[in-house]
Amino acid sequence: MKPYVSVELQRRVRQRFADCCAYCHTAEDLTATTFEFEHIVPIALGGETTLVNLCLACPMCNRYKSDQVLVPDAVTQTDVPLFHPHQDRWADHFAWNESSTEIIGLTAIGRATITALRMNRSQMIRVRQMWVAMHQHPPTFAD
Ligand SMILES: [Zn+2]
Fold it and tell me: 29: exposed, middle or buried (C-beta count within 10 Å: 0-12, 13-18, 19+)?
């Protein structure tokens, strides 16, 4: 069962992440889905339903993340923490490629998070191409 997230807390999380997925930066209003309030540290591991442990996540990032907190990095062959949307700066770990259709991992955390959350799925690249053509992508919010 999903924990209750108050309307006020939902508003604050949405504001913090500018209605974008905290991981892949997809803007919710470009999709036909409702984004989810994701527990960064899963409830199963003691994570609480508080602003500092919640982020806005698209349904796919949320599903692929699941209860993971450590993920393997293929380059260093070690398990590294997943990107933490409150403690880490997106731009320190990720960048857009030249066409803004693929996310590049700048660090082990960035690379491992991209792989674990499948942030560059072929479907996402295709839809990002359409958003770029519409001048709607990438989002401009900074975190
Ligand atoms: Zn996402």
Answer: exposed
